[in-house]
Amino acid sequence: MKEKFKVLTILGSPHDKKSNTRALVEDFVDDVATFGLDLTHEIVALGRKEVKPCKGCWACTRGKLCPIKDDLQEIKTKMVECDMLILASPVYTNQITAQMKALFDRLFTWCHIYPLLGKYGLSIVTTGNEGHGETGEFLEKMLATYGTYSFGSVQSIGGFTPGFFPWRQKAREKNKKLAQKVAKTILQGKKPSSHSVQKKIYKVMKNKMNGIHAVNSMVYGIPNGQPNPSKLHLKILPIIFKRLKMNESQIKKWGDILAFELSWWRDRGWLRTKSLKQLQHMADANDFDVKSRLLLNHEN
To answer: For the chain, which domains are there?
Structure first.
């Protein structure tokens, strides 16, 4: 029996059932289902979960388990296991809520490794009358950073105080065409087009990982099966080390930065990629255990 398509919403509102953003999410997902997509929908309301602020200890970048005890692991598991991720937040002071920002900060390493590569995405924002544009743009950037194929941002003004959303029906009617597109695209096994921000993020991350790979290789040698560091990096890095008067211990520390992320790129063969499109095609190219590596963060 074919499993239902799993939609997961991470709701940034502290109000849960009274949330206008939740109402907009439920309306949209219900409409997607009416257009033929056999789905299940789970909403994780961050206002009813405990996600503590990041301490900045960098343990996760070294492949260590986060020392903070809260509900993060449960939320990560749901994000990894879903087929489509919806990031939904009301506008608080022209941006996402503190609850949503705390989650993103705790998923610091995820910003470097496209952890949800190949999944579908969508952002949803409500506000009284302004701030929805920049908030939606930020959520779209996070979806791109995580590697999802986003259908875009569903937004509505007229969501004033919790439970008072006079524009709800108007917003629902406005978004039905997109709901139909979402259902049709998924049923056909297609993906939305990549956004320009995704290509920009790829270039930034590829350059960063190439640099860390070069320093790491200078300290430990090049691992078997890995590409040689670029000649440019090998030429420039010793000059930088000399100008900064870095000793061997300091250089080694630099080489160990983002060890978890570097091992991810190396083990997936991504250091050899030349474009985002090429990387996306490698989502399921080998036996790399995404779920285990994301949830357990064992040292590699």
So the answer is: 5-187 (3.40.50.360), 196-296 (no CATH)
